[in-house]
Amino acid sequence: MSTSDARFQIGHVLFIDMVGYSKLLINEQTRLLRELNELVQGTEQFRTAQTKNGLVRVATGDGMALVFRDNPESPVRCALQISRALRKQTPVPIRMGVHSGPVNEVRDVNNRRNVAGAGINIAQRVMDCGDAGHILLSKHVAEDLEHHARWRPFLHDLGQCEVKHGSRIALVNLYSSEAGNPQLPEKIRRLRKKRTANSVLLFSTTAALSLAIAGSSWFFSTYFSTPSAAIPKDTDPTTPPATTPMTAATSTRDIILANTSVASSIWQQPPQTSPTSRPRKLFAGTWRGTVHSVGPQSTWDTQLELNVDETETHLSNLTGGSVSRHGRTLTYKRSYKLGNRTSVRVHASLIVQEDDKTATYTTSQISVTGKSRSKTSGRGMLEKVE
């Protein structure tokens, strides 16, 4: 097929890579790669996609890329099945990345099936941001999954990560108590430390500059102020003078002492609070903790990282809907339709305790299809990360 005849299709890519592969001895590389191939081929999702001829397999030397043709859930299910299987046997240190995007099937130099295109390139860059055990998703895939109740507890927003050529990719960490890695990827950790250091440096520079300006103002007001005009001598004698008239005989030393006294009294006045000053940000920041299921119908627990922006009107993990605050409670609500028959209502609350450092988090989701109704609820304690 010529370049002009190439047809791009949407592929749902799972990219798998062994961490530290190049540092292993040749016999260890061979053994681990064989074990990984056998484990992947043994997963239910792999066998199902292969039976339907909806899977393209590409070897990458220290791992593989699996391109599914049906929907974005297929690579995610496969990644979870691989991660669970690894925990039950001798673990192979792998990381996985998932992205959906345009791909083009081509033939390599050995006339074997291969895949090219942005879909597989971005999937690899998503994977490169993770450490051993991580299952990272692009934000695009996570937004497709979050409309299904079964996926929402496993999706944890990470923000952006810098990748090749200085580009940034928005990432979501997928994990549960049985699969994935709940730890923050090292690349994300370094990026956040860098941002924090830059913020501290900017604050310190601003504070130092403000002090320098204030000190200069005080110095000039103390030593170079022009004395006020003297009170005329023909002032009504019955009216007591507001200040003592300054005569020509007043010495320069007296003027300096008088100005110093006035400037010092102004300098020592406590700052006045502006009536329009903004209230302290109670909710803004990052909250972390464990959320447990509530009710007998399901039992699960998950690590949650909730990011509230500076305006306190947006929660990074919860898209759409509305956010409102009342006292120490921040509330998120959203209603939407799944298909033509299912209505979904989502409600979450963040209640900050008196110490301003801990908060109670509750969440519930009600799905109604015809006369069938299901509810999933969770509750946990979160701690504000400084």
Sequence-ordered SSE layout with sheet pairings:
Elements lengths: L8 E10 L7 H16 L2 H8 L3 E5 L3 E6 L4 H15 L6 E14 L5 E4 L1 H11 L6 E4 H7 L9 E8 L5 E7 L11 H38 L28 H16 L17 E10 L6 E8 L13 E5 L2 E10 L3 E11 L5 E12 L2 E14 L1
Parallel strand pairs: 4-6
Antiparallel strand pairs: 1-3, 1-4, 2-3, 4-5, 6-8, 7-8, 9-10, 9-15, 11-12, 12-13, 13-14, 14-15
Helix pairs in contact: 2-3, 6-7
Rounded radius of gyration (Å): 32 Å
Major sheet description: 8 strands, mixed
Q: Strand share of the residues?
A: 25-35%
Helix content: 25-40%
Mean pLDDT: 78
- Extended strand count: 15
Succession of helices and strands: EHHEEHEEHEHEEHHEEEEEEE
CATH architecture identity of the largest domain: 2-Layer Sandwich
Shape type? globular
Q: Catalogue the unreliable spans.
A: 241-252, 260-270, 273-278
What number of domains?
A: 2
Structural class: alpha+beta
What is the fold named in CATH at topology level of the largest domain? Alpha-Beta Plaits
**How many H/I helices?**
7
CATH secondary-structure class of the largest domain: Alpha Beta
